[in-house]
Write the structure tokens for this entry.
Amino acid sequence: MRSLRARRGVLDRIRESGAARDATRPLVWLHAPSVGEGLQARPVLQALRAAHPDWQLAYTYFSPSADAFARKLDVDLCEVLPFDGAREARVLLDAWKPDVLAFVKLDVWPVLTETAHSRGVRTALVSATLAPNSGRQGAWAGALLRDAYASLDAVGAISTDDAARLVELGVQRDRVEVTGDTRMDQVWARAQAVTPEHAVRALLGSRSGPVLVCGSTWPADEIVLLPAVQAWLSANPTARVIIAPHEPTAGHLQPIERWADQQALSLTRLSQAETSPSTPWRVLLVDRVGILGELYALGTIAFVGGGFHDAGLHSVLEPAAFSLPVIFGPRHSNAREAGELVATGGAFAASKSEQLRALLNDFTRNERLRAEAGASAQSLVRSGLGSTQRVISLLTPIVARQRPLTENR
């Protein structure tokens, strides 16, 4: 939890930011606790900016890891949400005077929601999801949060099952509709942007052969992953692997470099390959963040990290958008899209190195199997396109309720 001094500093910045607020213009404020929710919020913000350039947009987050992501968004007001206290709520609402406050995914801050509701601010929840085994369904959480969920003016759920569970949580049935997951639009747009002329494609050079892209891996993943990769590379002399650690720190990169050296595998860091694209490599080690979604364009097969780690599975939608068959570890029960990909044949779970090695070899030797799995993976993404516009259609009417129509054009 942030210190009292830090919280006071945030509140001071929020008060000062009020100078940028034009109260004659509608303001839509999205709150996304961390980067994952931010990725769901970003296409909504972009679509709102395009559809309503005269509106103002605000964005808040809670996790310090989301600082850099948040600062890159095209919004008028941006700040960390310091604490769900009455004082913080009053300062934010006084300074920003929002028309609509929309939470992303699930976390509804009860004090802020209640204070906003008492002031006539419309509240919403978008890309809303609730896992069947969520602790939010317990008696304690229900007593704390039920009133907040019941007060929401509009809820866009990812699926019908989510909608039903959210109603059980307190959301009013006539205020929830299924709008889908905005990440589908986000990952699809990013995939479409990687054209044949895209700079990232130069990293492969002129060599051909299968490429395994390992995204957002943790050391717990690499204990299982690296032996399988070593065996796969030995069995397939033209194969190569791209490894993008979740945290590209020296402490995480160096063990992978030592592994490659021990296995006599030529390894190049991404930063080196970008300056010298002709440098040969069998292992490309990604030493910066923000590019993984594009590197999947180079892949034949994808391994997504987090399935052997308590932090949770990283996004499987990014490689799916590029028609890659997806492999991950056994801990994926809370990742809806991972289960959906497994059910449709677009993804496969492996709990041991031997299973992972077998899957890699199957996809390498059987082009039809690989193509069918990749097509199934991409089909899931395609089926969810349009969610962002459905969310915009959900939010626009509740903004209109706050303002005369002449102010919302």
